[in-house]
Predict the 3D structure of the following.
Amino acid sequence: MKLYSRPLSPYSSIVRCIAYYKKAPIKVVAPPPGFPIPEEFRAISPFNRIPVLITGSGLTIIEASVIAEYLEEHFPEPSLLPADSRDRAIVRMTTRIAELEILAPVMELFELFYLKSKDDARITKLFKQMETGLTELEKVLGTGPYALGDQMTLADAWLTPTRFVFNNFRKMSGREDLLDAFPKFDAYQQLIVQDSDLSLVWYEMSDGLKVFLKELEPA
Ligand SMILES: N[C@@H](CCC(=O)N[C@@H](CS)C(=O)NCC(=O)O)C(=O)O
């Protein structure tokens, strides 16, 4: 299997968390260099995005949540879903909240700040959506060692990159106090760095961020 990924891409990082945890025999490869990803990559990824998983039988799978479920089914051990259906629902709700209510608005806000957008109505709406997502997330987070308790789950794969982006997002948005109202999510960084697979992805993202920021510097 082959995974198209970049170290800093949050959606790719989710998949790498899962692949590392399961010790899945997946070759991690980069799409062609450049931001945005060059058009030639569309021959591999129909929407020109990463992550993309190419399975052993040659199936192209896109969308991090679909790749995550595929890997969970294809490499069932060690499992990233609890045995109990109620607990599985909580894991899945947490991943969806991270994806749709936190990561999605934050990624759009990154773009709007980068473009110095004056669309204040859209910015306010996205912040509100993100804060509602964080409020719901805060209710389910425990005290560790993983997001939802004793065992690593798909929730940790989603929350590791999600938590990572907030360090830079706080600076970029000028909202350093952004996570003060969400102490468990804020402290989740300390849990991540204690786990070998999650911390590996965290440090890959840190290195990727350094490279990205350097590339943004004027020559
Ligand atoms: N909904 C998609 C989102 C994937 C996505 O937005 N990927 C970004 C990188 S994190 C991307 O490939 N953007 C295009 C680019 O960088 O040119 C998923 O879950 O996989």
Remarks:
- The radius of gyration is 17 Å.
- The chain has a mean pLDDT of 97.
- The chain has two domains: 2-74, 85-216.
- The helical segments are 10-21, 64-74, 85-114, 120-140, 154-173, 183-192, 196-216.
